[in-house]
Write a structure and sequence with these properties.
This protein has 13 helices and twelve strands. The chain is α/β, with parallel strands linked by helices. It folds into two domains: 160 residues, Rossmann fold, CATH 3.40.50.1970; 159 residues, Up-down Bundle (Dehydroquinate synthase-like, alpha domain), CATH 1.20.1090.10. The strands form three sheets. Strands 1-2-9-6-5-3-4 form a seven-stranded mixed sheet. Helix 5 runs parallel beside helix 10 and helix 9 packs across helix 10. The model has no long low-confidence stretch (mean pLDDT 93).
């Protein structure tokens, strides 16, 4: 078991790697009334081990991150007499963590909350860092808060029940963390791919902890994304646009976004073609896509509405090498030229 701290302006968050889900009661604050938000899949698998409390179970999937569904959760809390002494526990993957964190941050101007993170994607990314958001008209996390959970428990044994598609979503974020932080971590992901895909416990736990440490260090230095936290958006600008227009999973979209950003970096000659190919090959080794048959103009139009856009440019994360990210303000017009097929104006 390993403990990692994220330092926030209004309090710290403790991430505990390889803690048993059934021990969550040790982390709950005394004298607070508990309310659980989960999804139906997690409820079916683990509800017998839930702490005794009212439970609200959402439909699994990104479609549940809509304000009209959030309103139902507020009403459920009111119906159950939840007051400012309430504690909200999200038990689930990234969608549950986003919803539980957003609800807790806004209900009665904010109550305490924590997470039991049940998917690889949420363990290495969604549950860590204090971003809590919901979607609007297909635009991801366009409404949200910065607010740290009191704790996050990552029980790696729960990953055994995940479908393969859900696992590779998490591997995409692990690759992202390596690309923006450490050539040696990237090399380990190259070396360990087969064992990680087979969920070798000790190795998986080590990689999850290393990935969380990357994000925790960045978030502690820049909680509200005024500077280096933007590095965590590597692959997400193009990826979120793809996610909106195609409906593909977050991890696959981020994989395509990382290929896109790496290709721009290569075309600008700030990374070598060898590094670009290593990135593409690593993504493929984890079963992640690096190309998609879609009109890039459709994706571009969605990308221009990204919340990272400022006037006529977007903060884009590029690479000067593996483990060497750089934040570039890229003009919308330049991006439009980059997506056009060669030889066309």
């Amino acid at each position: 078991m390993e403990t990692i701290e994220v330092k926030g302006k209004n309090g710290n968050s403790t991430i505990v790697i390889d803690e048993s889900f059934e021990d969550v009661v040790k982390y709950l604050p005394p004298k607070k009334e508990l309310f659980i938000i989960t999804d139906k899949n997690v409820e079916n698998l683990y509800s017998d081990s839930f702490p005794k409390s009212p439970v609200y179970s959402i439909t699994p999937g990104e479609a549940s991150k809509q304000l009209m569904y959030i309103e139902d959760i507020y009403r459920w809390l009111l119906h159950n007499n939840a007051d400012r002494n309430a504690f909200i526990l999200g038990i689930g993957g990234g969608v549950v963590c986003d919803i539980a964190g957003f609800v807790a941050s806004t209900y009665m101007r904010g109550v305490e909350f924590g997470f039991v993170s049940t998917s690889l994607l949420s363990q290495v990314d969604a549950s860590v860092g204090g971003k809590n958001g919901v979607d609007l008209d297909g635009y991801k996390n366009i409404i949200g808060t910065f607010n740290q959970p009191r704790f996050v428990l990552c029980d790696t044994s729960m990953l055994q029940t995940l479908p393969h598609e859900e696992l590779i979503n998490g591997f995409a974020e692990m690759i992202k963390h390596a690309l923006i932080s450490s050539p040696s971590l990237f090399e380990r992901l190259e070396t360990d791919s087969d064992k990680l895909l087979s969920l070798k416990h000790s190795l998986l736990t080590w990689h999850i902890a290393e990935s969380v440490k990357v994000k925790a260090k960045i978030v502690s230095a820049d909680e509200r994304e005024a500077g280096i936290r933007k590095l965590l958006n590597f692959g997400h600008t193009w990826g979120h646009a793809l996610e909106k227009v195609t409906g593909i999973s977050h991890g696959k979209a981020v994989s395509l976004g990382m290929e896109f950003a790496s290709r721009i970096s290569m075309e600008r000659r700030i990374i070598s073609s060898r590094d670009y190919l290593r990135i593409v090959n690593l993504l493929k080794s984890y079963g992640l896509p690096t190309c998609m048959n879609i009109n890039p103009s459709i994706v571009f139009n969605a990308m221009t509405k990204d919340k990272k856009r400022t006037n006529d440019s977007i903060d884009f994360i590029l690479l000067e090498g593996i483990g060497a990210p750089v934040i570039e303000k890229v003009a919308i017009s330049e991006l439009e030229n980059l997506i056009q097929p060669k030889g066309k104006a």
